[in-house]
Amino acid sequence: MRPSGRASNELRPITIERHFTKHAEGSVLISFGDTRVLCTASVTEGVPPFMRGQGRGWVTAEYGMLPRATNTRNNREAARGKQSGRTVEIGRLIGRALRNAVDLQALGEYTVTLDCDVLQADGGTRTAAITGACVALVDGLRSLQRDKKLLTDPLRHMVAAVSVGLYKGEPVLDLDYIEDSQADTDLNVVMTDSEGFVEVQGTAEGEPLAGEDLNRLLALAREGIVDLVAAQQAALTEA
Amino acid sequence: MRPSGRASNELRPITIERHFTKHAEGSVLISFGDTRVLCTASVTEGVPPFMRGQGRGWVTAEYGMLPRATNTRNNREAARGKQSGRTVEIGRLIGRALRNAVDLQALGEYTVTLDCDVLQADGGTRTAAITGACVALVDGLRSLQRDKKLLTDPLRHMVAAVSVGLYKGEPVLDLDYIEDSQADTDLNVVMTDSEGFVEVQGTAEGEPLAGEDLNRLLALAREGIVDLVAAQQAALTEA
Amino acid sequence: MRPSGRASNELRPITIERHFTKHAEGSVLISFGDTRVLCTASVTEGVPPFMRGQGRGWVTAEYGMLPRATNTRNNREAARGKQSGRTVEIGRLIGRALRNAVDLQALGEYTVTLDCDVLQADGGTRTAAITGACVALVDGLRSLQRDKKLLTDPLRHMVAAVSVGLYKGEPVLDLDYIEDSQADTDLNVVMTDSEGFVEVQGTAEGEPLAGEDLNRLLALAREGIVDLVAAQQAALTEA
Amino acid sequence: MRPSGRASNELRPITIERHFTKHAEGSVLISFGDTRVLCTASVTEGVPPFMRGQGRGWVTAEYGMLPRATNTRNNREAARGKQSGRTVEIGRLIGRALRNAVDLQALGEYTVTLDCDVLQADGGTRTAAITGACVALVDGLRSLQRDKKLLTDPLRHMVAAVSVGLYKGEPVLDLDYIEDSQADTDLNVVMTDSEGFVEVQGTAEGEPLAGEDLNRLLALAREGIVDLVAAQQAALTEA
Amino acid sequence: MRPSGRASNELRPITIERHFTKHAEGSVLISFGDTRVLCTASVTEGVPPFMRGQGRGWVTAEYGMLPRATNTRNNREAARGKQSGRTVEIGRLIGRALRNAVDLQALGEYTVTLDCDVLQADGGTRTAAITGACVALVDGLRSLQRDKKLLTDPLRHMVAAVSVGLYKGEPVLDLDYIEDSQADTDLNVVMTDSEGFVEVQGTAEGEPLAGEDLNRLLALAREGIVDLVAAQQAALTEA
Amino acid sequence: MRPSGRASNELRPITIERHFTKHAEGSVLISFGDTRVLCTASVTEGVPPFMRGQGRGWVTAEYGMLPRATNTRNNREAARGKQSGRTVEIGRLIGRALRNAVDLQALGEYTVTLDCDVLQADGGTRTAAITGACVALVDGLRSLQRDKKLLTDPLRHMVAAVSVGLYKGEPVLDLDYIEDSQADTDLNVVMTDSEGFVEVQGTAEGEPLAGEDLNRLLALAREGIVDLVAAQQAALTEA
Known about the structure:
The structure is a homohexamer.
Chain A: E1 14-18, E2 26-32, E3 35-45, E4 58-65, H1 77-80, H2 85-99, H3 104-107, E5 110-120, H4 125-146, E6 159-167, E7 170-173, H5 177-182, E8 185-192, E9 197-204, H6 211-237
Parallel strand pairs in A: 4-5
Antiparallel strand pairs in A: 1-2, 2-3, 3-5, 6-7, 6-8, 8-9
Helix pairs in contact in A: 2-4, 4-6
């Protein structure tokens, strides 16, 4: 039995609110239950120095957490003068995932920067961030098309992400904080809307994971991704 | 005529939403028009080293702005490894203002940390932050009383803040971004609910300010503070 | 009665020594009693990137304090790798104040950098710094005219600064360290030689400040500024 | 056909040299072909503050690369004052992997720090680092037993790591730099000597990865791990 | 012929002004010609962690240069967030030199921190700093004796420093900036009042230095040190 | 009697292994007994900004030590975000020494960066680094000639370095860690193959050094340099 009473293959309530702030080309507040992440897409002309002159675009991401997004306050990283290893690692993961969603050649020399800032954390912040950032990314790409800077849509596919893990020996989908802190294994899975894997990142904290359990977890993740992509699509059909 | 069509002594629409996030002892989303700041109060036992053993409490604040809170994206301070001078200066201002609201002796050896993070900026982020942080502070102090850690309320008075300035030669209240970027003089005024000054910080960017103009601006600020304190009180009477 | 025996509207002895060091275009050692600040003006061609191509100049300032300028040694900021919030805040204040003294259009694409380094501190370092930096600035602007790089004087007016505060309930001018550490309210006022306000920055540390007290303090500051401008003018008429 | 002429399931030549340096409790130079990583295990009494008083030990890791370990020189991270995101991410991966190898309860309040410094890079530095660090870890744990500080061996199992990927559409084992830079998908797999998964981290850089391909890659990794564990065991049976 | 017209074995005019600032236990403004360095000695109880519990004292030093001490402005190190390699290297040299002057056992668990800040630079700042810091150190040690914290004088000997170099092939003493920037070899020599070497640090920038030239330079330095020690003694006999 | 049983003028066993890693233009593993330093020379087109357009080249160096090169682990400087003063000071020494070996005019606008990373430390790391870096430098310069980028050899002379010191009152050559930690005086001497001094850097930790002792130490260093240059030449005659 999960602490939340959810079925093992049940996501938390997912909400996706577009246009949450007004300045960004894409701005999405996504909730996976009590986890709430503000994802903005900022579109700028030009690409970083190492990409220049190739006619290709760039997609990158940064992750942050407000100091009191968590149960006890974390020191503000800007004040400490250093991002934690965890912050850096998650930002890189989000960037890789979203880069996969875009045909950089078709994007041309534009950069989309995805900022994912956790307003409230209850487990799964990185998977919520990826899922929300993809919606913000679509709004960012649409703004380029609306402004006639791009004539075709550089989106290759939607990406969404979900965590799966073994909680008290049972595979469960979309772990909240209580489950996450007790789980033996935590696997974050990023997939496309056509069920291809973009990123798989799993760690056995306690017992090593047997091959069949890995397969069960991956199957469970696939179920969750289908629902998440549906939620993304529903949000994107609104004005 | 103001760009927004407001009267010269008219605040923008003010909204104050308490309990915006669930972990913090106080959590307030405040809007001054399109300026939206999330203010959390984190209450912890103990005080910083330089205060220890005096039996007195401490109130401090930090300020931040999400990278895309503004019209064009600002680099993330945590990633740059350094807070800007502006960020540091505003954080210190908020801390001084809120410290004035509390009887530190009556607070005892507790620390209240106020984090003010701008989700969307349209001028006046520091005044919105102070006004919202005071509501969050009250919720933080109430949590100490509810938990029987304090038997009396250490709040001395409410504080609120508003900007005033000379826009095209006329004194105006609560400048938005368009006004602020064109104003000759910008004055931020922090006052108590009994109309005492806590902080006055004004800069003449162009022409030096004559004494009578300073007095007109201070009077205008006083009007705005009355309305802001009323909005704070209204929010605090809700559950 | 003030600890120093001064009248409430009496400045400490003011000395202004120009040409204190030889390399800088302007170099002034200013004393407000035991507070001694070395202010240099460095004039360079060109302006920062954000100002380029507008034909306008720039004036900026940095503040520092030698580690043993104070009663107990402070850690060296260069060694700690970080300026304190106080240092940053004061540097920005000095910059704003001195920028107001200059017609940036008439300055053309030159930058004047004012470095204010406190050799000995006894309260009022920021006001001494502003007052001394303005003299150094004039010497810097004169060097541009002497070298025929400028044909007209871009100085709009002199600026000077002084602190006022409530000490044991009485308004006093130019607080020294003992007064400052016990004052209820501390107000730093920057004014022009024609008595316009450039910057007003005041904090009530204890009791909020009543409106009439604010007016008394501003009047007292005005008296002090008149004397400080006279001291600046006297220094500038020497060779 | 692989650039190196290797079979698709063929590791590069693996060498493991223990006691490469004399000060560390464990010191291993491991080569995966031209990739050479010096892995040291430093054993110290005590644990980090967040672990104190629980009677449990700690295993952590740091990763580095000499500036000219690569084809073109990288800036020295110590001189830049900042580790790259990649460095941080790999150090965390190594730490998680090696922590899994040890029964922290049985280790008691000792810390083992694994430093993995790449002397020469040719792809697969993180997998070589994990594989070598596990041998250094065993030497570190043996030193504790030899000194009678531990009476039982806290090692739970050996861990080893290998990369697999799709190169020109074919699954290949242990990618070298040329393959890695052209591979569509790169998967790093950490397993135990009993073939349990400890960490799976894979990224599809181009086409998303189909489920069956993921399974083929994981099977290939399992083959490689068997050989790597054999090489570890052979090295550890030497004096 | 030297640019300044000095004889090859002639020091610049040396002035040593004690009690230049009032807070420090020792405060000396030293001039070697146009090079002026403010040297303060700060005496505190206790020693750094690595020295604790041995009953011995510590002497350390830090070096800095005001941004406009030189002909063109240098960026402020505190603002850049990093001391230059040159600054670090000189601070360490001064610390080693002054540590040699004191019997740390006799000092007991006190720390003397010597801050050497260059107000105006014209070559030889590190040698002026050492020479002035030794006078400040003596005043610091005297304050400990005056306060009866020490009953005996822990000073072992005075130390002084001077530069020597080959300028246009000729050995010259106490190089000023013009000579220094053209010299082939620059040697900084720290000696005691009984003509023992404490530190010798020389670099041949152009031609390597022949053994006999090294000996000629060391002899010249010895001459200069005698005069510098005399100047120190003269200053110390004043009140 | 020296702890190692060596004669007072006897170097430790010296080995110089070229081509230790494959990517760098020069790559040398040098051993002075148990001190082992990997020295690489990286040759790049262009020079730093302050050298541009003069047609001259640049030689620079950086020094590092692996965390467990020493008996107890040192914190990783990249992780701390700061190089120690010692690291900075040694890197600058190596750079000056090697710059002296090259005719920068003849080098043309190329930069040679020498990275000296200590794999194992047992005293004398800086002298081993200089001696090894010179061999790596020669290989770097040869690569430029082999690629026809240079037609003449810009090497002016070989440089080598050795430490000398007073150990129990006796002058000894090439101190190992045990001797170094007990020596009264430690002198690092950099000389050319024709016995000219390039750098002399000596510190008396205890008793000041008498002039005749300095001369004896310098003579002893000269003996050691002759042997080191011979070892360099022997290594360079191999393929």
